[in-house]
Amino acid sequence: MAATRIPTRITPQYLENAALHYLERFAASSAGLRRVLLRKVDRSVAHWGGERADHLAAVDAVIVKLTNLGYLNDQAFAEMKTRALHRQGKGSRAIRATLAAKGVDSDLAEQAMETLTEEHAQPDLAAAVKLARKRRLGPFRLPEKRAETRAKDMAALARAGFDFDTARRVIDADSVDGLEELLTS
Fold first, then answer.
1. What is the C-alpha to C-alpha distance for residues 20 and 8, in angstroms, rounded to an integer?
2. What Cα–Cα distance (Å) separates residue 148 from each residue in 7, 25, 138, 166, 179?
3. Are 137 and 171 in contact, with CB atoms under 8 Å apart?
4. Are 73 and 111 spatial neighbours (Cβ–Cβ below 8 Å)?
5. Which residue of 5, 35, 80, 131 is 20 to 30 Å from 182, comparing CA positions?
6. Domains of the chain (ranges, CATH numbers)
């Protein structure tokens, strides 16, 4: 059996180093990085003793310092995450939910969604078409299978965060060319 690793004692320098190491590997919001650092604090307190509250000020100081240095930028994170999720074929509902789960403020999420709207005339429709193409739904499916799998295809788009009207427009499109016309109109 492998021995369990003993957590490091929490110091302000350790928290800063841990935060920088995390940010080297992952993009994060301030709230997301705070959760990561608090998990480290919790593991350390459970092993070494002490109070979680004793380390909260150090965690907040690291967050403020990294924000001032430009390593943490919630607006840039929200815009990056929004674009990435849109490229994956996620709808605006799913994008907003993901940003909320990542700890992005609702105002910043709305600004990121507005940026996406400036880049794409119909962002939800474009994302739905991308997802349909990737998953071979609706007009991307074999013609003889379309009728029997319509409900399943609609459900797949609904789970991806698209409203009923958008899902219906994509799934019920006559052809791939018809979808392209929807996007350009």
1. 16
2. 55, 44, 11, 20, 20
3. yes
4. no
5. 80
6. 12-69 (no CATH), 74-119 (1.10.10), 123-184 (no CATH)
Q: 155 with 137: CB under 8 angstroms?
A: no
d(CA 137, CA 128): 10
The residue whose two tokens read 């013609």 is 143
Q: Tokens at residue 171, please?
A: 């799934």
Q: Is the pLDDT of residue 104 over 80?
A: yes
How many residues in the chain?
185
pLDDT score recorded for residue 183? 80
Burial 138-172 (b: 16+ CB within 10 A, else e): bbbbeeeebeebbeebbebbeebbbeeebbebbbe
Chain segment 11-65, per-residue pLDDT in tens: 999 999 999 999 999 999 999 999 999 999 999 999 999 999 999 999 999 999 9
Distance CA 134, CA 66 (A): 38
User: Which alpha helices (DSSP H) does 49-185 contain, by range?
Assistant: 53-69, 74-87, 92-101, 106-119, 123-135, 150-159, 164-171, 176-184
**Tokens at 59, concatenated:** 């965690």
Predicted TM-score (pTM) of the model is 0.85
